[in-house]
C-alpha cells in the first residue's frame, strides 16, 4: 500500500498515520518528524531547516524530496508506506510520481482529512507531544493519563515550537497557497479520497480503514486474475 495523507496542520494526519501503520504493518513516514529529528540531533541541515519551521514556512523542495527519497529507499518501505506531510507542493508530488514510475509503482490513494481553519488552530494550541517517542496527545480529546508524561514511554510532554498561534496561522496560509493545489493534483486522476476530519479519532479511522479494506480486496482480486 502506498498512501499519502493531506490536510491542514492539525487535521490529524499524524494521528491517523500511526493507526494505519499499526493495522497494515507499513511505515508511517512524517516529514515533519524527520525534520524535527534532524534539528534535535544537530545534523548538518538542522539549523537551516529550523529557520523555516519556526517561521511556519516550508523547507526547500529539493531538501524535502531528498529526505523522502532517502527514507523510501530503506528496506522497511518495500511493502509500502504512508507519507504524512509529503508531498506539500505540486513539484514534490510530481517528483514523487516520477520516482515511483521508475519502479513501476504509483501513489495508490491520497486521503484529504478535512477540518476548518478554526478547528485547526484549536487543535494545534492543545496538542502536546512526547519528547521521547513522538506520541501525540490533545489536552481535551486525547489526554495522557499521567500529568505531563507519555502513557507509552513515560517521556516528558512538550509543546512544539511551531505550535504558537502566530506560527500556526502562518502555516495555514502556507497550506492554502502551496499545499492545497496538491489536493487538486491527486483529484485530477481519481487518486483522492476526502474524509470528514471533524469526528472522533476512531470514526475518522473507521472511514479510512473501510476504504483501505476495499482497496486491499480489489488489489488481491486483481492479482488473482
Ligand atoms: P508537520 O509536522 O507535517 O506539521 P503539519 O502538516 O502542520 O501537521 P501537524 O503535525 O501540525 O498536524 P497533523 O495533521 O499531523 O495533526 P495531529 O495528528 O498531530 O510539518 C511541520 C513543518 O515541517 C512544516 O510547517 C514545514 O515547515 C516542514 N515540512 C514538513 N514537511 C515538509 C515538506 N514536505 N516540504 C517542506 N516543508 C515541510 O493532530 C493534531 C491535534 O489534534 C493532536 O493534539 C491530536 O491529538 C488532535 N486530534 C487529531 N485528530 C483528532 C480528532 N479527530 N478529533 C479531535 N482531536 C484530534
Q: Could you walk me through the main structural features you see in this protein, from its secondary elements to its overall organization?
A:
The strands form two sheets. The protein has a five-stranded parallel beta sheet, with helices on both faces. The protein has a three-stranded antiparallel beta sheet with strand order 6-5-7. It contains eight helices and eight strands; from the N terminus they run βαβαααβαβαβββαβα. The two termini are 19 Å apart. It has 225 residues and is α/β, with parallel strands linked by helices. The mean pLDDT is 93. The structure holds BIS(adenosine)-5'-pentaphosphate. BIS(adenosine)-5'-pentaphosphate is lined by residues 7, 9-15, 30-32, 35, 52-53, 56-59, 64, 85-86, 88, 92, 123-124, 126-127, 136-138, 141-142, 162, 171, 197, 199-201, 204.
Distance from first to last alpha carbon:
19 Å
User: Number of helix segments?
Assistant: 8
Beta-strand fraction estimate:
5-15%
Sheet/helix structural class: alpha/beta
Mean pLDDT: 93
Anisotropy-based shape: globular
Strands, total number: 8
The ordered string of helix (H) and strand (E) elements is: EHEHHHEHEHEEEHEH
- Ligand identities: BIS(adenosine)-5'-pentaphosphate
Low-confidence stretches: none
What is the radius of gyration?
Answer: 17 Å
Widest sheet: strand order? 2-3-1-4-8
- Measured as a percent range, the helix fraction is 40-55%
Largest sheet: 5 strands, parallel
Amino acid at each position: 500500500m502506498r498512501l499519502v495523507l493531506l490536510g491542514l496542520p492539525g487535521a490529524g494526519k499524524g494521528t491517523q498515520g500511526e493507526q494505519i501503520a499499526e493495522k497494515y504493518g507499513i511505515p508511517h513516514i512524517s516529514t515533519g518528524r524527520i525534520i524535527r529529528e534532524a534539528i534535535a540531533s544537530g545534523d548538518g541541515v538542522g539549523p537551516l531547516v529550523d529557520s523555516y519551521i519556526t517561521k511556519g514556512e516550508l523547507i526547500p523542495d529539493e531538501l524535502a524530496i531528498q529526505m523522502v527519497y532517502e527514507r523510501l529507499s530503506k528496506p522497511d518501505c518495500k511493502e509500502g508506506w504512508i507519507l504524512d506531510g509529503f508531498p506539500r507542493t505540486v513539484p514534490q508530488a510530481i517528483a514523487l510520481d516520477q520516482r515511483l514510475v521508475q519502479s513501476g509503482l504509483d501513489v495508490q490513494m491520497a486521503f484529504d482529512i478535512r477540518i476548518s481553519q478554526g478547528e485547526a488552530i484549536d487543535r494545534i494550541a492543545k496538542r502536546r507531544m512526547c519528547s521521547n517517542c513522538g506520541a501525540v496527545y490533545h489536552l481535551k480529546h486525547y489526554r495522557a493519563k499521567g500529568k505531563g508524561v507519555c502513557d507509552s514511554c513515560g517521556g516528558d510532554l512538550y509543546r512544539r515550537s511551531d505550535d504558537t498561534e502566530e506560527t500556526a496561522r502562518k502555516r495555514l496560509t502556507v497550506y492554502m497557497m502551496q499545499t492545497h493545489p496538491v489536493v487538486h493534483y491527486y483529484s485530477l486522476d481519481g487518486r483522492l479520497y476526502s474524509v470528514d476530519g471533524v469526528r472522533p479519532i476512531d470514526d475518522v479511522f473507521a472511514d479510512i480503514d473501510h476504504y483501505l479494506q476495499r482497496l486491499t480486496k480489489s488489489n488481491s482480486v486483481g492479482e488473482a486474475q
